[in-house]
Amino acid sequence: MKTYSATDRTSSVSFVRIHEKDGAPVQYRKICELDGEEVPNEDVGKGYQPPGDDTVVPITDDDLSQLPMPTAKTLSILSFVDPAEIDPLQMDKAYYLGPNGTAAVKPYAVLREALEHHRKVAIGKVAMRGRESLAMLRAHDGAIVMHQLLWPDQIRPATGVVPDGVEIRENEMTLAETLMDSLGELDPAELHDDYREAVEELVAAKLEGEEPVAPATPSGAQVIDLTAALEKSVRAAQGRGRQAEDSASVTPIRGRKTAKKSAPKKTAAGGPEKKTATRKTTTRKTAAKSTAATSPEKTAAKKATPKKTAAKKTTAKKSG
Hints:
It contains 8 helices and 8 strands. The radius of gyration is 39 Å and the shape is extended. It is an alpha+beta fold and 320 residues long. Helix 3 (170-183) packs parallel to helix 5. A 6-stranded antiparallel beta sheet has the order 1-5-8-7-6-4, with helices on one face.
């Protein structure tokens, strides 16, 4: 089998060490701890330090070549199991496997079809870069993928990680399940590295001589109410679902934004919201009239006014 790297880690952000005074790169130098001298690469060897011991035992390439390594040139398959039996914590780097020569094409195709048809994965041993490791083979996209696996004793227990005595209320569990149902399926095409893109924008701004604008981030630690956070997430997820249904017939993203902005203008021109506002205003005026009618002071003032008018009219008659 030939191995081809199935993952690309070069797209992740990496930095080089520089001298802040002049911006020159800083070299990585190998210094001997005994004499303080720099050691050239050709004089760097291997050594093994037993756990809990300060002694370092030199190990040469000849020593390693004499060790029994049955998987040095082959991948030895031990068993076929269900994928659910493999703990994701054991997953390490992934490789595509290809047939090594014409004679290996048919066995390669048979193994791939068998894994895919029976929905099984193969567990075996393989030696890579002078180390023996567990490996898992699975069918993927018409090829065979090999995942290097950690040994079981390399998985640390979760002791002291999980808190004890946590009481979960029924409404909290209901909110969590509602959130899971609202989010729906995940589109891998929408996943991207926001941090890498932000770093690229920062570098581009510095190359252009511009001052980079840092996004506003809240400072200080905040205490998060899990129930409130779940409720907010559920509302946001449901809102995205309704928005997707309303704009399902609109393909361009810009058209979708324009449709949202034009909606309030139609409403302001005499839509349902304006009528509702008029009704509320009328109701308020009616309520104000009824309040004024029942006010004792204003009622008394109204009663006194007719009496004064009557008095004036009587005086006018007598003078006539």
